[in-house]
Design goal:
The chain is globular. About 50% of the residues are buried. The protein has helices at about 20-30, 70-75, 80-90, 105-120, 145-160, 185-200, 220-230, 245-260, 330-340; strands at about 5, 10, 95-100, 125-130, 165-170, 205-210, 235-240, 265-270, 305-310. The protein is an alpha/beta fold. It has one domain: TIM Barrel (Alpha-Beta Barrel). It is built from nine helices and nine strands. It starts with a strand and ends in a 9-residue tail after the last helix. The strands form two sheets. The protein has a seven-stranded parallel β-sheet.
Length: about 350
């Protein structure tokens, strides 16, 4: 069975649902709705922009039938049934699939995922993560070898979607982690993101440009980068990807950014923010963290299109705090997140 490399991690090839009982396990994990944020109307550019609807409202997000969490649940089923149940609940939630320089055939890999999701009547969340000089050489270093290589790669990614429904979170950290770039290279990066938005939108994708988190950037600086990176053509921006900042704080931050970018909507990664924050702004395998609100497109907030699990909970950020290499499955960390979950896991 072919393995897909997802941000340096092993993700097993897509397979059909195992059985009706597996599907019932998904349903059984749905306890109560995710906590909705209070509806607000922060305004957009002084009220000069028209109201925009959530493009993924009431969308059923795709749950892959194979994941590290599900394999862990299977491994613990007899010896550790309570822990297996926690892993099963984690596995029953929609999680993003990451694509980057480890995909030898990105068009084919995207096509297989989108096809599987379409066949199940759901919409997948994909992450494009291949910008040149990715992560400025840190734990997730890599990316395409130059601008032309990236253009070719993102065209292949978009061709895999082929006009079907898909949500794409575009290039985590690309606008926030830029300290290694010269002014010329920064401009090139913003151009590549802008072109990627156009390419993906032409193939029918719903696109959110990554905009860091509430703890990582100034509102005016990020809004400026988003504008130069083509957020006007995108569906909005994404906050808190692979971070731990609480949902309420990200909502407030997103509202401020939205005012500077024409009232654009946003999505929030809630995969590991149930504890609300991490001590000292820690971003790498922060201890004591918890699962946050379950993935949903019913957030109760006019500007927040979805709570998503963009970061796959239980996969390491890097070799900090005793973790394995970036992207590798860390069962003990996953179990801690599940035991300390900050909100009930919701149905999709």
């Amino acid at each position: 069975m072919k393995d897909l490399r997802i941000r340096g991690r092993d993700v097993f090839a897509l397979a059909p649902l195992r059985s009706v009982s597996a599907a019932l396990l998904f349903a059984a994990s749905a306890l109560t709705a995710a906590p909705a944020m209070a509806t607000t109307d922060p305004g957009n550019n002084g009220g000069t922009e028209p109201a925009v609807r959530n493009p993924i409202e009431r969308t059923r997000l795709y749950v892959s039938p194979v994941s590290h969490a599900r394999r862990q649940a299977d491994a613990w089923r007899r010896s550790r049934p309570q822990d297996a149940a926690l892993m099963e609940r984690m596995a029953s939630q929609a999680q993003a699939e990451w694509f980057g320089d480890w995909n030898r055939d990105v068009r084919g890999d995207v096509d297989r995922l989108v096809s599987a999701a379409a066949a199940s009547g759901a919409v997948p969340v994909l992450v494009a993560y291949n910008i040149p000089q990715r992560d400025c050489g840190h734990y997730s270093a890599g990316g395409a070898r130059g601008a032309d290589a990236y253009r070719k790669w993102i065209r292949g990614f978009a061709e895999g979607i082929r006009g079907r429904r898909a949500v794409v979170v575009l290039e985590p950290d690309a606008l926030m982690v830029t300290h290694c770039l010269s002014a010329q290279k920064l401009e090139e990066r913003l151009t590549l993101v802008r072109e990627a938005v156009e390419t993906l939108k032409a193939r029918g994708a719903t696109v959110y440009i990554d905009a860091g988190s509430a703890s990582g950037s100034r509102v005016d600086e990020m809004a400026s980068k988003l504008t130069r990176a083509g957020v006007a053509r995108a569906d909005g921006f994404a906050l808190n990807v692979s971070n731990f900042v609480g949902t309420a704080r990200n909502v407030a931050h997103g509202e401020q950014i939205s005012r500077h970018v024409g009232g654009k909507h946003f999505v929030i990664d809630t995969s590991r923010n149930g504890a609300g924050t991490a001590s000292g702004g820690e971003w790498c395998n922060a201890p004591g963290q918890a699962l946050g609100a379950a993935p949903t497109t019913r957030t109760g907030h006019r500007l927040v299109d979805a709570f998503l699990w963009v970061k796959r909970p239980g996969e390491s950020d890097g070799t900090c705090h005793g973790g394995p290499q970036a992207g590798q499955w860390w069962a003990d960390y996953a179990l801690g997140l599940a035991k300390r979950q900050g909100g009930s896991l919701a149905s999709r």
